[in-house]
Specification:
This protein has about 250 residues and is of the alpha/beta class. Helix content is about 40%, strand content about 15%. It has helices spanning about 25-30, 35-55, 75-100, 115-125, 145-160, 170-175, 220-235, and strands spanning about 15-20, 60-65, 100-105, 135-140, 185-190, 210. It binds 3-methylbut-3-enyl trihydrogen diphosphate (IPE) (2 copies) and magnesium ion.
Length: about 250
């Protein structure tokens, strides 16, 4: 069923939007440019989207910037993606901090170059007290890796007698994830037409509304986000029950 696009209903905006920002390479290829050009235009799309999410009243925006599997790409491209994180934080952190955005990074930090670890720690510390919009950047992130790291820490706590094996349930488990304290995404968008999660938020997406759009990430912005929210607002969330439930 298609319905004409309208403005999203402000009262029912998803509290947490997660995005797999995909299609930078194809966007560049269409223009006969290097993949890295697609990635830098992708940063512009990210800026537009952060702005739009704040305007629309989204509380949490999580974006997938680099996966634990993206190390398979040529070193030159991997370096370019790391450089873009450096550039994005250098250029935008002050503005984000001023505008009330709290920045957090999820993913495996071990093994990241020293300056990246520092940049992450600084961005988080500097915006710690903000609460207008939570911007969560998944960097060197993989859902399976996150769950395995959580399990390792749980095992350590059990061995140390700090946690009883019988007390491990989904709520307790979630406190060991990188997203501890962050509500699960209400809506998960993937751009570029691919229909898969590619190891993103495997635990957290259990009941997320999945939205797949054909637009390539560098073309994404406020209109695309509004259209996704409208689609979300036409969904019925049941969480395994028989009747629609309020979020
Ligand atoms: C998404 O675009 C950015 C990252 C994965 C870092 P891609 O680089 O995957 O672009 P496509 O999917 O090859 O078009
Ligand atoms: C997922 O996209 C990772 C990010 C967007 C950071 P990929 O482009 O790496 O995913 P696959 O390889 O198409 O599954
Ligand atoms: Mg891709």
């Amino acid at each position: 069923m298609t319905q004409p696009a309208s403005t999203p209903i402000p009262a029912n905006v998803p509290r947490h939007v997660a995005i797999i920002m995909d299609g930078n390479g194809r966007w560049a290829k269409q223009r006969s440019r290097p993949r890295t050009f697609g990635h830098s235009e992708g940063v512009e799309a990210l800026r537009r989207t952060v702005e739009a999410a704040g305007d629309l009243g989204v509380e949490y925006l999580t974006v997938f910037g680099f996966s634990t599997e993206n190390w398979r790409r040529p070193a030159e491209e991997v370096n370019a993606l790391f450089d873009l994180l450096r550039l994005y934080v250098a250029r935008d952190l002050d503005k984000l901090a001023r505008e009330g955005v709290r920045v957090r990074i999820i993913g495996e930090r071990e093994g990241l170059q020293g300056d990246i670890a520092e940049i992450i720690a600084n961005a988080e510390a500097k915006t710690r007290h903000n609460d207008k919009l939570n911007l969560i950047i998944a960097f060197n992130y993989g859902g399976q890796d996150e769950i395995a790291r959580a399990a390792r820490r749980i095992a350590t706590d059990v061995a140390a007698g700090k946690l009883k094996a019988d007390d491990i349930d989904p709520d307790r488990f979630a406190t060991y994830l990188d997203t501890a304290g962050i509500p699960a995404p209400d809506m998960l968008i993937r751009t570029s037409g691919e229909l898969r999660l590619s190891n993103f938020m495997l635990w957290q997406a259990a009941y997320s509304e999945l939205i797949f759009v054909d637009v390539l990430w560098p073309d994404f912005g406020k209109p695309s986000l509004e259209a996704a929210i409208e689609a979300y607002q036409r969904r019925e969330r049941r969480y395994g029950g028989t009747d629609p439930e309020p979020r």
